[in-house]
Specification:
The structure is a homodimer. Chain A is α/β, with parallel strands linked by helices. Chain A folds into 3 domains: 47 residues, 434 Repressor (Amino-terminal Domain) (Orthogonal Bundle); 126 residues, Rossmann fold; 140 residues, Rossmann fold (3-Layer(aba) Sandwich), CATH 3.40.50.2300. Helices cover 44% and strands 16% of the residues of chain A. In chain A, the strands form 2 sheets. In chain A, strands 2-1-3-4-5-11 form a 6-stranded parallel sheet, with helices on both faces. In chain A, helix 5 links the parallel strand 1 and strand 2. Chain A is elongated. Chains A and B meet through helix 4, helix 5, strand 2, helix 6 and helix 11 of A and helix 4, helix 5, strand 2, helix 6 and helix 11 of B. The structure holds a DNA duplex.
DNA sequence: TTTTTTTGTTTAATCGATTAAACTTATATT
DNA sequence: AATATAAGTTTAATCGATTAAACAAAAAAA
């Protein structure tokens, strides 16, 4: 009944040879180790017959390689990360790697715990979506010589491999797109964060205004705290839409901000895009299905995920591999939520 | 620079004792093994000093326990599964377990591959969202005595632990809700599948009609193939809305079906709920943000996930634990998409 | 025929942690 | 003083696979 695990030893004794031979044969080293032709065949047969499955733990203990990579993200229940995770999983599997995913909730402390759990589990390397204040983690990994690739976010002052989006450019494009559509009082809602990717999103937006001779008003930039997103997004929108400078367009710097913002905009019965035009980072079904489909900045998820795996595996194969950094372009997908004002010139 | 791994042996030699003592002390067995008080203290100190982290592989190889569980789902990029995964991850972590997630894409073959990869990685047990035609997997796990719990879906003819939703009841509720709202020609779009959970969703709907003396028309039940969902949902809706029996309400049996359906309904410029009322299984931001918020059957995600982990861990602790099966209730969240017809009695 | 080379196979150490059993001392009992 | 018990520590086997090194037997070269 209880078909227990088959080990090399079982095969060896059944074939009447030592475990060494079995190991050689089953690892395709019969040539180098000149195993007898007959006996090799027999071993293979028995292995198949008993449905032998090698014990990864033993293999890993010996080799020091687990063929496992740790993927640290903010939250697997966020569609952006869920999609990335899926790509990473598939890509890793192609090379025989298994992925262990952990959610940090954007908290450095959780991320640190995760990192340590996974290090103890002997993952071969990491793909990390960093959270704020986690520079020390990076230093630690470097010191310990643990291979890793930063994904989606990076620290400009740290020398690391990374695969990310050109957020400055994306945000700049969003700004220009709205300006070209005739919008004149464009605001942005971002997270209050020191993270570079967030700063870049704000900077791109501001540069777009500046390049088009728009005077940026402080009231147009709202930075909300992740921990209190729902309330603060509401306040932000209230403030942006109530003064005499009230905005006619908002850029949401993340998917989560957009969801909260749109809900509140619905509550306020503001019409998109007539009362308020919208452009958002992220991508999800909800942007398609909103009554007025939402213009968004589509990040190359697939490519981001694939490339990060590729970089990491290259590094695992050859630890002396040079540093690799890539910024990819997001694509602005124009929809009705940022439709050009009819009274304005369109480009 | 390259701070290499600290092992028991390193501590032992630094303390001038054997590894046995170190192991005893670090596992809190100094009492049973009557380790000297002095030496115990010294060992602990050195361990802390060197920041000793035990090697999980070695531990696992010896103990046969990896403290890892495999979570097999259809697709991590589907929000339903992503949310479940998050709950499972958090719950498992509380007990020191790590989760490895794999996506099967509803394909038995992929699920089988996954299962085997994870078995080779020596996971202690599985939480599985089954796909069609995977009964044999269940038999295999039982034969091999590998602990597992089925989540969200189960096979009524197989004796297994499971944690799932009462789909019959949920669907019945949806039907009754629409009937009470005055809808008279209610259709359902489901997957063409032998899976019990899907059958139950159809059955509940049909029973609701029957109990209210509605005559069920074949044209009101559409079963589409997962592989060709986009096209077939369109066809289904076309057929349901074009004949003389055309439906005035549709129940979508899954989130994915609803997304595709709503997109097409938008294309057709059908108004919800005036032209077509909607109730859907699943839950996601998009249901809130649709111009007419969608009535949905809210499954107790949190509880499903938690309970499945609980069941599995109980079984891991005590393999002779009796079989556990739970059906949980989904809750119908009524929104505008199924608003009662004004000309009809409301309940 | 003797020596060398080739071919085929086994032995044993290793990865790192655990733990039953063996082994010393020291202390208690008779 | 002789013996039993307790206290403290080490030895060595084990988990399963890998692989360098040792070994034995057969074939080739001298």
């Amino acid at each position: 009944m209880n078909a227990k695990k088959i080990s090399l030893k079982d095969i060896a004794s059944k074939a009447g040879v030592s475990t060494a031979l079995v190991s050689y044969v089953l690892n395709g080293k019969e040539k180098e180790s000149r195993v007898g032709h007959e006996i090799a065949k027999k071993i293979k047969e028995i292995a198949r017959e008993l449905n032998y499955q090698p014990n990864h733990l033993a293999k890993s203990l010996r080799s020091g390689k687990t063929h496992t990579i740790g993927l640290v993200i903010a939250d697997i229940s966020n569609p952006f990360f869920a999609n990335i995770a899926r790509v990473v999983e598939d890509e890793a599997k192609k090379s025989g790697y298994t992925v262990i995913i952990g959610s940090s909730d954007e908290k450095a402390e959780k991320a640190w715990d995760l990192l340590n759990v996974l290090i103890n589990r002997q993952v071969d390397g990491f793909i990390i979506v960093s959270s704020e204040h986690s520079e020390s983690h990076i230093h630690y990994l470097k010191e310990r010589n643990i291979p890793f690739v930063l994904l989606d976010r990076h620290f400009p002052d740290l020398q690391t491999d990374f695969v990310a989006t050109n957020n400055y450019k994306a945000s700049y494009d969003a700004g220009v797109h709205l300006i070209n559509g005739g919008y004149e009082r464009i605001g942005i809602i971002a997270y209050r964060s020191d993270m570079y990717h967030m700063q870049e999103r704000v900077r791109g937006y501001q540069q777009a205004l500046k390049d088009h001779k728009f005077v940026f008003k402080n009231n147009w930039l709202k930075e909300v705290r992740f921990e209190n997103i729902e309330q603060e997004v509401k306040t932000a929108i209230d403030e942006m839409t109530s003064t005499e400078d009230k905005v006619d367009a908002i850029i949401f710097a993340t998917y989560g901000l957009a969801i909260n913002g749109l809900k509140y905009i619905n509550e306020l019965k503001l019409r998109v895009p007539d009362d308020l035009a919208i452009v958002s980072f992220g991508q999800a079904e909800v942007f398609d299905l909103y009554y007025c489909p939402i213009t968004y900045l589509k990040q190359p998820l697939e490519l981001l995920g694939k490339t990060s795996v590729e970089f990491l595996l290259a590094k695992l194969k050859n630890p002396d591999e040079g540093m690799k950094q890539i910024l990819m372009e997001a694509k602005l997908i124009a929809r009705d939520s940022s439709m050009a004002k009819t009274s304005s010139p369109v480009t």
